[in-house]
Specification:
single chain; 386 residues; alpha+beta; 6 helices; Lysm domain GPI-anchored protein 1; LysM_dom_sf; LysM; signal
């Protein structure tokens, strides 16, 4: 055993050595292009008796040479600290130091004391990789590893392979640990809209859908498919014409007629949102078999209630992305632009009264009649002759 002075010296030197940090996929970039991406993380109740897995669509931009979100903001609430925002609101996908570095003008000299209502930029990690994986369309999800995760389990859950995850994340081995942030490629359907369309480059993850063309068109990527199918959105109002020229077919309509040479198929396809109008293309072709009915992804509604301690934990970014999960404990909180599902009732961005605020207000309203009745009963009892 080394002498005590030497041991103390070693301990003091070790205190200044860099600590091992969780791995995180970093994609260098050198342009202003952005893409649709996802972040996935787990939130727990206070006693960790239940969990909620969220997949949040974000716009992944190039900021200071690295891919990260640039439009996600959070307005602080009472008792917020950088540590609580990192862990309880964003599930550890962004660290307190990263939030601090992204907000040099927010006067966060003491991360444990933050003024209520402070607007913070949240630099969520994300990756684009040209929206492709092995030369096939893909959307990348930034995923926070849990202590029970294995790389093979993650690969099986998201229909990819261990070798692909290792290549994407530059892993030397399949060993991962709690808190690591991995980029997971999700199979997707890609559009072929022209570059002058406002929704050019739309990519929809497999098993989900997107709302585009000013909320008029819904584009689906069915289970096990790579063919994007677009049709009028169910809640479409005040939309431009969706009828294909020189036909009576609407966007999404397909007719098929069997013949001796195969199947004659005529389709009216959505071709992008151009100058405020819905572009469509009429095509007729012959194929060996007539197409079956279009498969639509199962949709899971956003949660109607969250634990009060989370205070609407999901950001409200403005771009497309999102993928409904097949896990019953999972939910998607969609965005408000080209979206997956309906926008959430509230979110950190610009929201001053979250779920707990509404709850406490309702408790006050409902408790008033009870207190009034209790007071009348006490007054009546006291007035009775003994």
């Amino acid at each position: 055993m080394p002498p005590l002075p030497l041991l103390l010296l070693l301990l003091s030197v070790g205190a200044f050595l860099p600590r091992t940090a969780p791995k995180s996929t970093i994609e260098p970039c050198s342009n202003a292009d952005s893409c649709s991406a996802l972040v996935g993380y787990t939130l727990y109740t206070d006693l960790k008796v239940s969990e909620l897995f969220l997949k949040i669509p974000i716009s992944c931009a190039c900021v200071d040479g690295i891919r990260k979100s640039s439009s996600v903001t959070y307005k602080t609430r009472p008792a917020d600290t950088l540590a609580s925002i990192s862990a309880a609101v964003y599930g550890g996908i962004v660290s307190p130091d990263q939030i601090n570095d992204a907000n040099p003008k927010a006067e966060l000299s003491d991360p444990s004391v933050i003024a209520v209502g402070t607007q913070l930029n949240i630099p969520l990690p994300c990756t684009c990789f040209n929206n492709s994986d092995n030369n096939l369309p893909a959307v990348y999800m930034s995923y926070v590893v849990k202590d029970v995760d294995t790389l093979s389990g993650i690969a099986a859950r998201y229909a990819t392979t261990v070798s692909d995850l290792m290549n994407v994340n530059a892993l030397a081995s399949a060993e991962i640990k709690d808190g690591d942030i991995l980029a997971i490629p999700l199979s997707a359907c890609a559009s072929n809209f022209p570059k002058y369309a406002s929704d050019y480059g739309l990519v929809v993850p497999n098993g989900s859908y997107a709302i585009t063309a000013s909320h008029c068109v819904q584009c689906s990527c069915g289970p096990g498919s790579r063919n994007l199918y677009c049709q009028p959105a169910s809640l479409a109002v005040s939309c431009s014409s969706m009828q294909c020229r020189y036909s009576n077919l609407m966007v999404g309509n397909v007719t098929a007629q069997q013949s001796s040479g195969g199947c004659n198929v005529t389709s009216c396809s959505y071709s992008g949102f151009v100058n405020g109008s819905i572009a469509s293309t009429l095509s007729t072709y012959l194929q060996p078999r007539c197409p079956g009915s279009q498969q639509f992804p199962p949709l899971i509604a956003p949660p109607t209630a969250l634990p009060d301690s989370y205070l609407s934990p999901a950001p409200s970014p403005s771009e497309a992305g999102g993928i409904p999960s097949t896990n019953p404990k999972s939910s998607v909180v969609p965005s408000s632009g080209a979206v997956f599902g309906l926008p959430p009732a509230s979110g950190p961005t610009g929201s001053t009264l979250g779920a707990s605020g509404a709850s406490s207000l309702m408790n006050q309203v409902t408790s008033f009649p009870v207190m009034l009745m209790l007071g009348l009963i006490i007054k009546f009892v006291c007035s009775m002759p003994l």
